[in-house]
């Protein structure tokens, strides 16, 4: 088989694997890792055939489930020797096809690479295996009196290694930053099976290149993250939240500015929901929306403090000042932790959209904050013209420039994916945004990368890939 000019050896090998070669590969993997760690044929779990993207299932040649870094390295060496590409998999909650196998590839699942290895209270660090679910990491930090601020709706399913590989954002980026800012050290298996163990526990370490940044956000194309050292943060003594209805988007921008200046480091989240989102969620069973429909925008403002007796009244006073300034049309403020959870339940209800809306396309884009409402209006108008009858719901973190969209055509099979993507991503380029704010590129956004990255940037990405993985054995065809 002759590879296309843009096709790596790994992609070509994945589509042209003879029965004898595959049998030899499987035998070598079983001999090294044991039969229980190598699942092929009818033993392959269906879940490993795809992620949460809308691309559909693609069964791998085999699912390999190593339990140690040494086993990951051995599996990588064997696959590289047989010319068979490897697709790393974590919690499989990605939306861009980054963990979706190629035909004839091996899916390397880190589901057995779980556990908290160490918590160091003095340095405020945690060493953890990459397959550990984010919620497990959060709970271990909480039990030790600390906070892991990374938080996503998929916290119970997503793996911390996958969070690092996609540089996940989540709900509290406005205060704590992206996953990148929470990682001090990594252990990584390279495409040739070599291992870099750089489990740094120091915040200040300028000894040469900071290699961890090659792998954070690289979506498993340059190396397989097996262990991480995370920064831990002080656990907040109190959390306050308010759901606010606003008369226009200018008030949203004003409220964000007031929250940054008036709440300072207490501000931990600033979420915005447009009316269509609010109306859809309000009609969902089990979701209680504490404000009526009919407003231009809805904001969830969260603050975390160190002294409830001082910080809760301060938050209440700040909110009252915003009402007096005319920024708020209505608002409700939390009186308990249960109220905070209820407010977040409105925002997290988007996880049920596949059951409520049926098939649709999810989008994760970034835009200048001031331009978001203009983008929303332009996008709704363009979708109505291009795909008559299409629905589109808009919501996002806003404070960090992240807007989420779900769009589709009810009852359509297949969905008008191409038309919807052309509208959404075409306008992203016009408004000076990015096609990916926190979910990566994977397969689904690869055709649109040129909208937001220059030819020189993409060429440099390809040079990095070629330098670390010259044969394209690790997650080929993804990102660039």
From TrEMBL:
It comes from the Bacteria. Residues 56-235 form the FAD-binding PCMH-type domain. One of its GO terms (biological process) is respiratory electron transport chain. Keywords: FAD, Flavoprotein, Oxidoreductase. Its cofactor is FAD. InterPro entries: FAD-bd_oxidored_4_C (IPR004113), FAD-bd_PCMH (IPR016166), FAD-bd_PCMH-like_sf (IPR036318), FAD-bd_PCMH_sub2 (IPR016169), FAD-linked_Oxase-like_C (IPR016164), FAD-oxidored/transferase_4 (IPR051264), Oxid_FAD_bind_N (IPR006094), Vanillyl_alc_oxidase_C-sub2 (IPR016171). Transmembrane segments: none annotated. Belongs to the FAD-binding oxidoreductase/transferase type 4 family. PANTHER family: D-2-HYDROXYGLUTARATE DEHYDROGENASE, MITOCHONDRIAL. This is FAD-binding oxidoreductase.
């Amino acid at each position: 088989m002759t590879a296309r000019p843009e096709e790596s050896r790994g992609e070509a090998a994945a589509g042209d694997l003879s029965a004898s070669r595959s049998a030899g590969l499987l035998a070598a993997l079983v001999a090294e890792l044991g039969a229980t760690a190598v699942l092929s044929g009818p033993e392959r779990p269906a879940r490993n055939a795809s992620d949460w993207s809308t691309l559909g299932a693609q069964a791998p040649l085999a699912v390999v489930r190593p339990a140690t870094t040494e086993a990951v390295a051995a599996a990588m060496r064997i696959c590289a020797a047989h010319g068979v590409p490897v697709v790393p998999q974590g919690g499989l909650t990605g939306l861009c096809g980054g963990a979706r196998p190629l035909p004839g590839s091996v899916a390397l699942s880190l589901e057995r690479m779980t556990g908290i290895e160490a918590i160091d209270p003095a340095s405020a660090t945690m060493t953890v295996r990459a397959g550990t679910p984010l919620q497990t990491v959060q709970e271990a930090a909480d039990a030790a009196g600390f906070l892991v601020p990374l938080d996503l709706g998929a916290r119970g399913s997503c793996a911390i290694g996958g969070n690092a590989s996609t540089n996940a954002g989540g709900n509290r980026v406005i205060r704590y930053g992206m996953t990148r800012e929470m990682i001090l050290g990594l252990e990584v298996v390279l495409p040739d099976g070599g291992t870099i163990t750089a489990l740094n526990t120091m915040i200040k370490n300028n000894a040469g290149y900071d290699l961890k940044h090659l792998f954070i956000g690289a979506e498993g194309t340059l190396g397989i993250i097996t262990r991480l050292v995370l920064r831990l943060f002080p656990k907040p003594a109190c959390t306050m939240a308010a759901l606010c209805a606003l008369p226009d988007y200018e008030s949203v921008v004003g409220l964000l500015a007031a929250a940054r200046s008036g709440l300072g480091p207490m501000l931990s989240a600033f979420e915005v929901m447009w009316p269509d989102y609010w109306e859809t969620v309000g009609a969902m069973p089990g979701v209680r929306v504490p404000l009526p429909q009919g407003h231009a925008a809805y904001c969830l403002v969260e603050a975390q403090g160190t002294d409830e007796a001082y910080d809760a009244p301060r938050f209440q006073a700040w909110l009252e000042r915003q009402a007096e300034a005319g920024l708020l049309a209505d608002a409700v403020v939390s009186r308990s932790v249960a109220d905070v959870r209820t407010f977040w339940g409105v925002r997290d209800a988007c996880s049920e959209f596949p059951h409520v809306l049926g098939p649709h396309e999810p989008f994760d884009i970034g835009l200048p904050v001031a331009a978001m409402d203009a983008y929303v209006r332009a996008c709704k108008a363009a979708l109505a013209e291009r795909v008559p009858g299409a629905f589109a719901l808009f919501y996002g973190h806003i404070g960090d420039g992240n807007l989420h969209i779900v769009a589709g055509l009810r009852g359509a099979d297949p969905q008008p994916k191409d038309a919807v993507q052309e509208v959404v991503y075409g306008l992203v380029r016009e408004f000076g945004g990015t096609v990916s704010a926190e979910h990566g590129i994977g397969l689904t956004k690869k055709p649109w990368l040129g909208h937001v990255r220059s030819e020189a940037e993409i060429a440099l990405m390809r040079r990095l890939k070629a330098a670390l993985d010259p044969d394209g054995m690790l997650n080929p065809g993804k990102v660039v």
